[in-house]
Design brief:
about 325 residues, binds aspartic acid, alpha/beta, 8-stranded mixed sheet, 2 domains, about 30% helix
Length: about 325
């Protein structure tokens, strides 16, 4: 029978209320899988953590990836909180060196609420992980019956069951009656990134109205900062004052510019004012393309962990952030 490895890390899916204290992580892998009844796959499961996903870190995710690779299963399911699920999925997508599918899932409603979605999401994740057509697609995310590519998915609502979206690309497929239906092929995957040096900091600084650039300058001056992601306005634009700061920073730090709009890419050659996308590129900033600031931070940290220099960072973002 098909063997699926399941690693649980915590999150709402593993939470139940404690009197007077709200929901906290209480359920491990055995309890989560035990609630699913008979399964058409063999499952090898381990509780690797039991945390709220705002506390997720690269060390835990590297341990999780390595555990998943060691099991030599046909598919790998990772269960965690939804708050940082898009970052986990994207990180695993970047550093998963195998054709075996990795499927990340969680839940919006904990076990103490009416209609918790965790059991159905976990059952769907097993279905997706077991399907041979999921192979070679890197990391996938399934919640609310949709199957998303890690590259596009993001949490776009704080509480609804349909919190996850892949706009504008759309989901890759859907799970119906315990079968996955893929609407689209997945593009070829760039080689996996390997690196272990996740030390240091990569702040995301959001720019906006009446921002002379001081917050950016302050953030960049902190000890341990290895790079900066700017969540810039529109198509990758900052104020004239912020542009002056970027011009000073680019010699010593990688500066990646993403759009804060939540949809659409950074541009390259449309505007020419001081602080425009083309002026930031001319200074030496790297554009995040279609990646939002959150994913850009994960990519920059993963590139830095792999020892990427400025050229390799630029190439890495062009390869993974642009569509062409
Ligand atoms: N609200 C979160 C969730 O959906 C909690 C977390 O991310 O751990 O799982």
């Amino acid at each position: 029978m098909t063997l699926i490895a399941v690693a649980t890390l915590g999150g709402t899916i593993s939470m139940a209320p404690v009197a007077g204290a709200g929901a906290v992580p209480r359920l491990g892998a055995a309890e989560l899988l035990g609630g699913l009844g008979d399964l058409p796959v063999d499952v090898l499961a381990e509780t690797l953590a039991g945390i709220g996903s705002a506390s997720m870190d690269f060390a835990t995710l590297l341990r999780c990836r390595d555990w998943g690779l060691r099991q030599d299963a046909d598919g790998f399911v990772v269960v965690q909180g939804t708050d940082t699920l898009e970052e986990t999925a994207y990180f695993l997508d970047l550093c998963w060196p195998s054709e075996i599918p990795v499927v990340v899932t969680g839940a919006m409603r904990n076990a103490g609420l009416l209609s918790p979605d965790g059991p159905a999401n976990l059952r769907n994740a097993l279905t997706v992980a077991a399907d041979p057509r999921s192979r070679g697609r890197g990391a996938l995310v399934t919640l609310n019956d949709d199957v998303h590519a890690a590259r596009w998915v993001r949490k776009a609502h704080s509480s609804r069951l349909d919190a996850f979206t892949s706009a504008p690309a759309g989901p890759l497929g859907m799970v119906v009656e315990h079968a996955v239906h893929y609407f689209h092929p997945s593009p070829p995957r760039p080689p996996a990134l390997t690196g272990e040096d996740f030390g240091g900091l990569v702040p995301v600084v959001e720019t906006g109205l009446d921002d002379p650039g001081e917050v950016l300058a302050h953030a960049a001056a902190q000890p341990g900062v290895r790079g900066i992601v700017l969540a810039a306005t529109g198509a990758g634009h900052v104020s004239a004052g912020t542009a002056d700061v970027v011009a000073r920073l680019v010699d010593s730090l990688p500066v990646v510019v993403a759009s804060r709009t939540g949809a659409g890419p950074t541009l390259r050659s449309t505007y020419g004012f001081h602080g425009s996308e083309s002026s930031l590129i001319a200074m030496g900033a790297t554009m995040a393309g279609w990646l939002d600031a959150r994913k850009a931070r994960i990519l920059l940290r993963t590139l830095l962990a792999a020892g990427a220099d400025r050229d390799a960072i630029e190439r890495g973002f062009r390869l993974r952030g642009d569509l062409d």
